[in-house]
Design a protein that fits this description.
heterodimer, A: about 65% helix, elongated, B: alpha/beta, FAD/NAD(P)-binding domain, 6-stranded mixed β-sheet
Chain lengths: ~350, ~450
């Protein structure tokens, strides 16, 4: 991690700790007030706890041109980003995809070509629906490792994070509150329930929270669609294609629509927001990642819409290409933020519980 | 200007915005002339964090009740009776219905901040502090149609008989003039005007730090007083507290405060003590230390503690100067080594045994020491030793306009028919000396609303 960035964050946090006016906005400030000295691990934990709602920036009496030059959302974004890249495993993948939208796009093209090639070269002998284009076993052969290996990578990263920030044993209460925080996105509520300062300077709006909720819950529904399909396939020997009134379709279509609208909203908001209040180095990578999520959702929905037509093979390759990219990039893109944020919230709840005991 | 405004508001802090919102609500065309650039808009309101509020029962984030008489008694205690009872009670009573008004116009409150539990019954804290309040008010005012010009200092208000007939201001390098029907002045005191402070206080004022905005220079205040408008408040006095001597000259705000004095010995540049550091609990004493330090040579003092007291107060933004022994500390502070060693040794020898309680008057005192330390007198003997430099930090000045119950400014021959004042620029009527936490915002809010209402009535 960059020692300079951490030191700059520490300088700013110490000013915050002497002021404390922002205590009501989010979990970061109460966490700051629980300490007087901040080790590198503490700074990293605070950085990952920050949801970049920007309320503190617009309320701050010490932002530039004041000589204290506070910009907490930006410096915490930078520390956070550095931590994801440094904890990433294998480390050499850590940097490029975070920063570069071009790299992400190239990976999509590569993944698409893989499926396109596979569908041409290894035509299945038989099969219904998608499996007429690409056999089930072929899909499993690609996606099982492409899903599990990134998960292993993330587990290794999170373990490193947990050690670095001084994490320890979790209580049921801490886990429950942390998940409740995530489910409601409490830290994007502004403390008063009116949302963030994001797309229009100091105006509080719920747009970002709504966009994020649609994206997060839409994604989870899509994930449940795939999981339920796997259970039906292996557990009950009920194979795709599924009818509309089936768990995979109900989850998938609902989630796909939510994910589409959520990511479009987030991408639009991102174009409006002040880039100086985030980590400017990774704007392109973040934007490409949001659009990748959007592409996963849109191509998934389209694929369902064109069922039975000649467009299926091409669209299937596009859709599977985007999904594969998403999986592969889980540890090396903005996707990582969900895992780290959850870890930070768990660690924060641990500390709150320990303090109140 | 697209439309010639009916009402010009001079200033852009809490009082100005309350007046602007009230008048704009009434359908008046309002123009706010804020002297500061947008980044620094809001005057000293940017640095505030709470609002002292009367309430007959639990109200919003406020617990219990805080009645008019208790509130007024608190005011009498800090001002030593130097107040205008009619105006003071108007502000106190007005605070109760101002709290919901503030919420309705975008201000969000939160329970008292950590370390301020003593204020949870009397003071409602702004979520995000004073700048968040100012931001919300600008949004509301502009939504109601008020126009705002930043970097637009008013240079002169022309008083012709009993009316303001002209407003001169500068904007984007041009000298401009307006003739609105009415004017509200809400542009604060003159504490950022060092030349005026020196004239009032003496050359020592050169060394004062100004805790708030550099834009409160009192230009409109002195402009009108020079035209015979009646003043109130001691022109030579300002409210000053002891703050960290390394604070910036202007705008250091809350993070420069130091709460370590009661647990320390405080010496001047000659390494000698000069006042009882343990006279009373800090919230009741911090205000006198600005004056005490101002009276020392070079307006500087040093608060010295040892390891035992390191964690007994809120962290300051500047790390303390640290040394393993008193002699080394003296060298780092540029004080005479043997004198400081003797001062600390004499103090330590005079400390009497007793049970130390950091949060209450514990009676742990010195014996036969001049000046004594009458509470929290523990020997300074466990290294490492820490020192903070103290300097006077000016919060506000007391000189202001004399106003009546309608916030109308009093000219040489009675009320000026189209001029009202609100906020710090008239607070000297009510707060003749001392300070009561959160009361400046109360005066600004209540009289800002009154001024806005009266000006709107006059315009229509």
């Amino acid at each position: 991690m960059s020692a300079d960035t951490i030191q700059e964050a520490r300088r700013q946090i110490e000013i915050c700790n002497a002021c404390r006016y922002c205590e009501g906005y989010c979990a970061v400030f109460p966490a700051i007030t629980r300490q007087k000295a901040f080790a590198d691990g503490d700074i990293t934990q605070l950085a990952n706890l920050c949801h970049n709602c920007r309320g503190c920036y617009y309320a701050c009496q010490y932002t530039e041109p004041h000589e204290f030059a506070l910009n907490l959302p930006k410096v915490l974004a930078e520390v956070r980003q550095d931590s994801w890249q440094d904890f990433a495993w294998p480390p050499q993948f850590g940097k490029v995809f975070h920063k570069s939208g071009v790299a992400i796009t190239m990976l999509i093209v590569l993944c698409f070509s893989l499926f396109f090639g596979l569908s041409r070269l290894v035509m299945p002998a038989n099969g219904d629906g998608f499996y007429a284009t690409l056999s089930h076993s072929m899909m499993v052969a690609v996606f099982a490792p492409a899903f599990l290996l990134p998960l292993v990578s993330i587990a290794i990263s999170l373990r490193r994070y947990w050690q670095f920030v001084g994490g320890g044993r979790l209580t049921v209460a801490a886990v429950k509150s942390a998940f409740a925080n995530v489910g409601r996105m409490k830290n994007l509520s502004g403390g008063h329930g009116e949302g963030c300062n994001f797309e229009d300077e100091d105006r509080f709006t719920k747009l970002r929270k709504i966009g994020h909720q649609l994206t997060m819950w839409g994604f989870l529904l899509c994930f449940m669609a795939t999981s339920s399909g796997t259970i039906l396939h292996y557990g009950f020997d009920i194979k795709a294609p599924y009818s509309l009134i089936s768990a995979p379709k109900l989850f998938g279509v609902t989630g796909g629509i939510m994910l589409t609208f959520g990511t479009i909203k987030l991408a639009w908001l991102k174009t409006k927001a002040d880039r100086k209040l985030g980590d400017g180095r990774v704007w392109g990578g973040e934007m490409a990642f949001v659009l990748l999520l959007c592409a996963v959702a849109v191509t998934g929905l389209l694929l369902y819409a064109v069922t039975g037509t000649v467009l299926v093979p091409m669209l299937l390759a596009v859709h599977l290409g985007t999904v594969l990219t998403l999986f592969l990039l889980m540890p090396f893109s903005k996707m990582a933020h969900g895992f780290y944020r959850l870890a930070a919230l768990l660690q924060d709840e641990r500390k709150v519980n320990n303090d109140s005991r | 200007m697209k439309n010639e405004p009916d009402l010009v508001i001079v200033g852009g802090g809490n009082a100005a915005l309350c007046a602007a919102i009230t008048a704009a609500h009434a359908g008046v065309r309002v123009l706010i002339l804020e002297g500061a650039p947008k980044d620094y808009r809001g005057g000293n309101s940017r640095h505030t964090r709470n609002f002292r509020c009367m309430h007959d029962g639990p109200l919003s984030v406020l617990t219990g009740s805080y009645g008019e008489d208790e509130y007024y008694d608190d005011l009498l205690r800090v001002t030593k009776g130097n107040t205008d009872e009619t105006l003071a009670r108007l502000a106190i009573r007005g605070s109760q219905d101002s709290q919901p008004w503030m919420e309705a116009h975008g201000v969000r409150f939160q329970p008292s901040l950590s370390g301020t539990l003593s204020l949870s019954r009397t003071n409602a804290f702004f979520l995000g502090g004073g700048k968040a309040l100012v931001n919300a008010y600008y949004r509301t005012a502009e939504r109601l149609g008020a126009q705002v010009l930043y970097d637009a200092p008013v240079t002169h208000l022309e008083l012709t008989q009993d009316k303001i007939t002209r407003v001169d201001y500068t904007y984007q390098g041009e000298n401009l003039t307006l003739s609105p029907k009415a004017v509200v002045v809400a542009s604060g005191g003159f504490q950022a005007n060092i030349e005026r402070l020196v004239a009032a206080w003496g050359p020592e004022a050169e060394n004062f730090l100004i805790r708030g905005t550099p834009y409160n220079r009192g230009d409109v205040l002195f402009d009108l007083l020079d035209q015979g408008v009646q003043s109130i408040g001691d022109p030579t006095q300002c409210h000053a507290v002891a703050i960290d001597g390394r604070a910036p000259k202007f705008d250091g705000g809350i993070v420069t405060r130091l709460d370590c004095v009661p647990f320390s010995v405080v010496v001047n540049k000659h390494a000698k003590r000069f006042y009882n550091e343990g006279e009373d609990v800090w919230p009741k004493r911090y205000a006198i230390w600005g004056r005490l330090v101002a009276a020392q040579d070079d307006q500087v003092a040093y608060s010295i503690i040892d390891r035992k007291s390191k964690d007994l107060f809120m962290p300051s933004v500047f790390p303390p100067i640290t040394a393993d022994n008193i002699g080394e500390l003296a060298t780092k502070l540029g004080l005479d080594v043997s004198t400081l060693e003797r001062t600390v040794a004499d103090f330590n020898a005079a400390c009497q045994p007793g049970e130390f309680h950091p949060t209450e008057l514990d009676g742990v005192t010195t014996d036969a020491l001049n000046p004594p330390k009458t509470n929290w007198a523990r020997p300074i003997e466990d290294g490492p030793f820490y020192a903070y430099e103290l300097r006077p930090g000016v919060t506000f000045t007391y000189l202001g306009f004399k106003v009546d119950e309608t916030a109308q400014v009093q000219g040489p021959n009675g009320a000026i028919r189209n001029l009202w004042a609100a906020g710090e620029t008239m607070a000297g009527s009510i707060l003749g000396q001392g300070y009561l936490a959160g009361f400046g915002m109360t005066i600004g809010t209540v009289f800002g609303r009154i001024a806005g209402r009266e000006a709107a009535d006059y315009v229509r």
